Amino acid sequence: MSRPILFVDRDGTLIEEPGDFQIDSYAKLRFVEGVIPAMLKLRDAGYDFVIVSNQDGLGTDAYPQESFDGPHALMMQVFESQGIRFRDVLIDTSFPEDNAPTRKPQIGLVLPYLKDRTIDWARSAVVGDRPTDVQLADNMGIRAFQLRTAQFGGEWDWAGIAHALADAPRTARVERTTKETRIVVEVDLDRAAEPRVRTGLGFYDHMLEQLGKHGGFALSLECEGDLHIDEHHTIEDCALALGQALRQALGDKRGIGRYGSDVVAPDVPDARPTTYGLNLPMDETLASAALDFSGRPYFVFDGEFRRERVGDLPTELVPHVFRSLCETAGLNLHLAVRGDNDHHKVEACFKAVARALRQALAREGRELPSTKGAL
């Protein structure tokens, strides 16, 4: 069975890099935050590890080999004591001006691996702190992760890298631009995080945040809309973009729960919405939602609002939000709400749908939940 390899830079990636760029004493040895738990997670996911490092002038009078060997050996011992072993350690000792074919980002050091057909190259990756590590990955034709540092930038930490590679997360980024709105949505269905939503409409932000928070997925949504005209385009287009992101992140939908309709409060008196399945109480209000990622958009709403607005959200657009979400997500949703307080009713609708989404999006294996062979 083929195994993926994580090709890992050393200084600045496994261990912190000092100001003089040489870890030539035990006192300079510091591990990068989160590296050991992340590598343990990757090890358990089947990854092998190979160090690929440029060590300028190693073995010269300016950087004696014996100064390097002690801290390096201690680093390797610490990793091994934690159950992390490296398949290989590849070190280039040239200077940049030498233009050696073995110096990153050139592929000379890793060339024997590139000829190995037993490696799972689709899952293999390079992790480093410099742009040269990213270029090495490009030259190898595999994925790159640049660690976030003050000196070289980058956007990843070790926990994020382990999540991206070991969990095979279902993620999507959607950019939707029209004459009325510019929207960027990012979702990660396999990571819980505090939602970040900015639409220019405070109460709508709060409601969309409920979908991520109670839906159990990471959600980021930014919108610049024509609010100087009215709210309609912003509210509708954000729902359309979010539905598109959910559909894209689900991929072929293998392993998902597909349906969301678990009863939470079945014994509330005079609660007509109980026929729909998932019941969510909020003080005097009861909302219920049942949904199916069938690929066939359909929306049924049973409820009404007395107020024209709750905050800056027109209540007439609440059903439209969910209808738009269904349209692009390929979602069948039945939603009902009863109560006296319109604020409670709107919020309960979003929370009920979110809780149904949590069940439907959950992975339960690799089977496709359909007798048709497609969703």
Automatic annotation (TrEMBL):
DNA damage listed as a keyword: no
Keywords: Amino-acid biosynthesis, Cytoplasm, Histidine biosynthesis, Hydrolase, Lyase, Magnesium, Metal-binding, Multifunctional enzyme
Segments of this protein annotated with the region Histidinol-phosphatase: 1-169
Entry annotation: catalytic residues: D9, D11
PROSITE patterns: IGP_DEHYDRATASE_1 (PS00954), IGP_DEHYDRATASE_2 (PS00955)
Source organism, top-level taxon: Bacteria
Gene3D superfamilies, A to Z: HAD superfamily/HAD-like, Imidazole glycerol phosphate dehydratase, domain 1
Enzymatic reactions: D-erythro-1-(imidazol-4-yl)glycerol 3-phosphate = 3-(imidazol-4-yl)-2-oxopropyl phosphate + H2O; L-histidinol phosphate + H2O = L-histidinol + phosphate
InterPro entries: HAD-like_sf, HAD-SF_hydro_IIIA, HAD_sf, His_synth_bifunc_HisB, HisB_N, Histidinol-phos, IGPD_sf, ImidazoleglycerolP_deHydtase
EC number: 3.1.3.15, 4.2.1.19
Pfam families associated with the record: Hydrolase_like (PF13242), IGPD (PF00475)
NCBIfam families assigned: HAD-SF-IIIA, hisB_Nterm, Histidinol-ppas, PRK00951.2-1, PRK05446.1
PANTHER family referenced in this protein's UniProt entry, alphabetically: IMIDAZOLEGLYCEROL-PHOSPHATE DEHYDRATASE, IMIDAZOLEGLYCEROL-PHOSPHATE DEHYDRATASE HIS7
Name of the protein this chain belongs to: Histidine biosynthesis bifunctional protein HisB
Gene that produces this protein: hisB
